[in-house]
């Protein structure tokens, strides 16, 4: 037997039967996922033989419309022109920081320096260990 989502189900060990109970409502509000879905979709007969082809076509058209609307909203947030307006290129930022006597390095540049410090014969054991710990941090991010 199919049971609505959000129901409490248990196995009665004395009788060996499975029992199901709808969750209790507080303040008359339903909190089950199935009941929220029913409100959103309207009254739906879950018997598979009760749907006509026209009803299925209408439901499919509604799903497609809502999917298109969701795609349109998400696409608006991903437009490259809006991203370019919000952020400046890294080259421009580097130039501005150089004017302020500050050098900005990317993670890649820092990792290359740490690897060269580790491979350097002039580095002490403590410097090599510190370089490995720092390198571990950057590699973990990647």
From TrEMBL:
Gene that this polypeptide is encoded by: Sil1
- The UniProt annotation puts the region (Disordered) at 1-41
A single GO cellular-component term from the record reads: endoplasmic reticulum
Q: Which GO terms describe its molecular function?
A: adenyl-nucleotide exchange factor activity
Matching InterPro entries = Hsp70_NEF-Inhibitors (IPR050693)
Give the compositionally biased regions (Basic and acidic residues): 16-35
Protein name, as recorded: SIL1 factor
> Which top-level group of life is the source organism from?
Eukaryota
Signal peptide range: none
| Keyword terms of this UniProt record | Coiled coil, Endoplasmic reticulum, Protein transport, Transport
Q: Which GO terms describe its biological process?
A: protein transport
- Per the database entry, which stretches of residues form a coiled coil? 49-110
